[in-house]
C-alpha cells in the first residue's frame, strides 16, 4: 500500500537497498519508509513507496530509479493526488486511466449467435483454450499491444499464459474455440480479468454472451456483484460493461518513467 498524504518536515534519512527489489529509508536506524519493485507477469516492473514524509518519498523514489533500468511503472488511485504528484516529481508521466466497474451478476439470458455454443466456466478443454489464448494475444499485440489489456494479477511460469484452465469459459464455433472469458478472485469480489474474441468473430454478440454466462454462474452461486477493470481508451469494452448495468466505482492511473 502506498501512503497518500505526506507530512511536512525534512527528516535526515539513509536509503538502503536491503534486497534486490526492496529499499528502506532509515532515520537513526528506524525504518520510516519502504520501497518495492515488483515484476508483473507481462514482464513490466512496477514501483511502490510507503512513506509519510514528502522528502522521504522523493529520496526513496530517486534511489530506486538509480538502481533500476527503465521503463518502470506505477499505479495510483486517482483520488490520491499527493501520491500522483510525488511520482510526477520523480519523472513519471500518466500513461493511461483504468476504470473499475462493479457489475451486477443478475442478468437476462444472452443467447449466443447462431452456430456458437458456450462452454461453462471450469469446463473448457485445456488444449483448445491455450491455442485460442495464443491467437488472441498475437492479434492484440499486433494492434494496440498486450500492455493495453487489464493487468494479469496471477503469478505464472514464464511462457505460460493460461495459469488455470478452470478459471475460463469459452465460446465454440465450427469445433474451434473463438472466444474466452477469465474470472479470478484475488480480492473480496470476483474479477472479470479478460474477455477476448478472435478478430474474425467479433461484433457478433459472442463477448456479450460469454459475459452473461459467467455472470449467471456467479449469481447462481450467491454472488451478487463482480468487478472489472476497463481501459478508458477501449470504447468497445466500456460499452459492453455499461450495457449490462455496470457502474464506475473508482479509477486508477498508470504512470511510466522512461530513460533519459
TrEMBL record:
Domain N-acetyltransferase: 133-260
Domain of life: Bacteria
Keyword Translocase among record annotations: no
Keyword entries, A-Z: Acyltransferase, Transferase
Gene3D superfamilies hit by this protein: 3.40.630.30
Pfam families registered for this protein in UniProt: Acetyltransf_1
The keyword Transcription regulation is assigned to this record: no
InterPro entries the UniProt entry points to: Acyl_CoA_acyltransferase, Bact_Acetyltransf, GNAT_dom
GO molecular function annotations of the record: acyltransferase activity, transferring groups other than amino-acyl groups
The protein's name: Acetyltransferase (GNAT) domain-containing protein
